[in-house]
UniProtKB/TrEMBL annotation, chain A:
Keywords: 2Fe-2S, Iron, Iron-sulfur, Metal-binding, Oxidoreductase. This is Oxidoreductase. Pfam families: Fer2 (PF00111), Fer2_2 (PF01799). InterPro entries: 2Fe-2S-bd (IPR002888), 2Fe-2S-bd_dom_sf (IPR036884), 2Fe-2S_ferredoxin-like_sf (IPR036010), 2Fe-2S_ferredoxin-type (IPR001041), 2Fe2S_fd_BS (IPR006058), Beta-grasp_dom_sf (IPR012675), Diverse_Oxidoreductases (IPR051452). Gene3D superfamilies: 3.10.20.30, [2Fe-2S]-binding domain. PROSITE patterns: 2FE2S_FER_1, 2FE2S_FER_2. CDD domains: fer2. It comes from Bradyrhizobium iriomotense. Residues 1-76 form the 2Fe-2S ferredoxin-type domain. The keyword Mitochondrion does not apply.
UniProtKB/TrEMBL annotation, chain B:
InterPro entries: Ald_Oxase/Xan_DH_a/b, AldOxase/xan_DH_MoCoBD1, AldOxase/xan_DH_MoCoBD2, AldOxase/xan_DH_Mopterin-bd_sf, N-heterocyclic_Hydroxylase, OxRdtase_Mopterin-bd_su_IorB, TAT_signal. Residues 228-317 form the Aldehyde oxidase/xanthine dehydrogenase a/b hammerhead domain. The lineage of its organism: Bacteria, Pseudomonadati, Pseudomonadota, Alphaproteobacteria, Hyphomicrobiales. It comes from Bradyrhizobium iriomotense. It comes from the Bacteria. This is Aldehyde dehydrogenase.
Amino acid sequence: MIKIKINGQEQSWDGDPDLPLLWFLRDEVGLTGTKFGCGQALCGACTVIVDKEAVRSCITSVNDVAGREVTTIEGLHPNGDHPVQKAWRQVNVPQCGFCQAGQIMQAAALLMDNAKPSHDQIREAMAGNICRCGCYQRIENAVHLASTGV
Amino acid sequence: MNFIDNPKKLRGFEKHVRIEKVSRRSILKGLGVTGGFVLAAPVMSRQAFAYETGAGKMPHGVVVDPRVFVAVAPDGIVTIVAHRSEMGTGVRTSLPLIVAEEMEADWSKVKVQQAHGDEVKFGNQDTDGSRSTRHYLIPMRQIGASARIMLEQAAAKRWGVPATEVKAVNHEVVHSASGRKLGFGELAADAAKESLPSVDSLKLKAPKDFRYLTKGQISIVDLHDITTGKAGYGADVRLPGMKYAVIARPPVTGGKLVSFDPADAMKVSGVEKVMQVRGWPWPSKFQPLGGVAVIARNTGAAIKGRDALKIVWDDGPNGKYESVAYRKELEEAARKPGLVVRKEGDADAALKSADKVIVGEYYVPHLAHVSMEPPVAVADVKGDKAEIWAPVQSPGGTREDVAKTLGIPEENVTVNVTLLGGGFGRKSKCDYALEAALLSKELGAPVKVQWTREDDLHNGFLHTVSVERIEAGLDKSGKVIAWRHRSVAPSIASTFAAGTVHQASFELGMGLVDMPFEIANISCENPEAAAYTRIGWFRSVSNIPRAFAVQSMVGEIAQATGRDQKDMLLELIGSPRIVKLASVKDLWNYGEPYDSYPIDTARLRKVVELVAEKGEWGRQVPKGHGLGIAAHRSFVSYIATIVEVAVDDKGKLTIPRVDTAIDCGTFVNPERIQSQIEGAAIMGLSLAKYGEITFKDGKVQQKNYDDFPVIRMDESPLVTNVHIVPPGPDTPPSGVGEPGVPPFAPALINAIFAATGKRIRSLPIGKQLEA
């Protein structure tokens, strides 16, 4: 039996320990905010925060996070008012919105690590997250806004 | 049976697919079913409005009835139905906003409800072709105005005053003479009993009184949910007892399952069943390809189970499809005369007598949509009833196709439309919903069919692959006197009818026969090209290769004659005029009447001039940088783009700045126009820099975002400026979602020439600058 703390709540799993965390979150726990985009850690749509680090849940097994704390988009802030979330709304970032949970989690992790990232640091840190609609200019602006106070 | 035999299975573009026995879907079908005030014909009379659109000619036409689209609750909450699909354009906000504007509803008291697929009730729901605002601006205003008048009439009766003395203002009806006011909620029950005003009698708001339209101050309705993970996409639907499925499909289009061994798959923890899925022979429109499904308790187990399957396929006749050889075939075809689809003067003779002939042969390969949400659908089929939850651009068409596939009446099929995690044309084809319906029927349980990214690339409906060959003849003075453009590409119609070798009018009309240049001798030709895979709509469709070729050729002529690109472009566009295309048999014109939506070169010139001014054309740029320009009319909008590129000594590209001017006529939400154009620059850059799907042994060679890359943030343009042309008082609305893409690649290629002296004629750019 594997035990994981997800958004502050303990969850357990006695199935295949190699099951990707993404599918455990989405299909077994019902936290569907974390998205499937590629399954190969290429697009970042499935990004969650494990302890204080952004990880791609599609290539992270349930076993890999045993005993650790996982935060998903649903758990980032109780009212959805994390500075990154607020900045996203202020800048009207999303088009289709499907990649945005992953983008927001990546940005939140970046700001935990580097509270005032430069233009180049934002572009580098966010380069693992694909947005097919092409919202990059606004994502960059929103990360910048979140780092300077919304 | 070939699917094309039944004309009812085609939607909307029947007229444009040249196949016998195909007649237009009856727009009157089922008219008696609803008690509503249903108009299946165009509702806009020439007397009432300055323009007509093609909305009435779409399947099921337009419905203008506030009782279908608007509900007012006693607490004052106004619910407005969004009947088009949201895939990122903002349409789920924009259309209800139009209704709210005209009915004087307070947007903070409006809820948007997504319509299920029911075109008899709601009118046409196909969210494609950049049509939603274009077709629904006036109908949505009429719906809002009707609702407002019914509320005003109810208030006037309550007070015993003439209706002319009352007025709806911000969610209340006001009688200013007596100072009395009644909220919309208080009037709801009475208003519902009022008779519908006639459409012709409706007086719409003057634009100066707009509170929401044209202001760009309202965010999309799903913004909060998107940022908190609550927004519901197709993949997020969960039903009690739902099974999770992935399907192994034939790797070659038209291939068949020979045999499979499920033993190892069944050993995977969580896998519950392995079963065959029915497939249809190619071509069969959007019908499933068939294959082997793995059913599991979660998607991860289903994928692992599928990896363990042993399957033998028969690849069939398309097993020889190979991209290098196919390109040679297209090039050879482009070097010989083909079916003439436009002819003015005598281009052949003029090319012979020309002082100079410039030849450009341009190549654009197959492209894949790779929307962030891969195709996915949930179905629950019980007996002769089916309920579907899916991210589909065509909920009405999905309903029809599910009914046909299961052999049940359309009335027994409910299609719930989720948010779409991107569409770009892929989700106009509902094959994934049909797969889910077939599996659910057989399993007797709700099932979710999830496509992986590999499935998306291997079994999709690709953008065509084309060779565009242009020969331009110049006289001694450098004036272009002859233009011969041969376009060779497999047609989307090949996905509907076997043996299709010519492009349909809806493809020829995307930048080939509608080319707007003022040249005395023009020949447009369409040599034959057979298809060996499923071809489908991709955002902007044939405009991508056409704008690339035509606008690159403008740059080449400028280059050969030593002129400025922008001046050359304006010279070729020529005098401000309405282009007459007498020799074109079927000028599709995006389904719009030509008198409302002509090819107006004054408007094309204007976007060129505007972008040149705002984008500071001719500005000094550092060494290694270059400016390029391109302009193109598509989806009846006019767009011009300037790209500044920087190319370093290793051939690495960066894009310091993009400027785009768009004339999309009367518009609703400039903020979403801006976001669409910003995104179009990135999609244009993706396809120019990387976009290429190749085939070997009939199979797509790319698998995922690593070998089919799209632009990431670190290589995206540093800034994209959008300049919107203010519309005239009666300028009809035109497309926004797609027109931004086509001019980007040629503007970039022209900029690369300016920066490096290298002319790229084959996309993607790939490593061509590294040489």
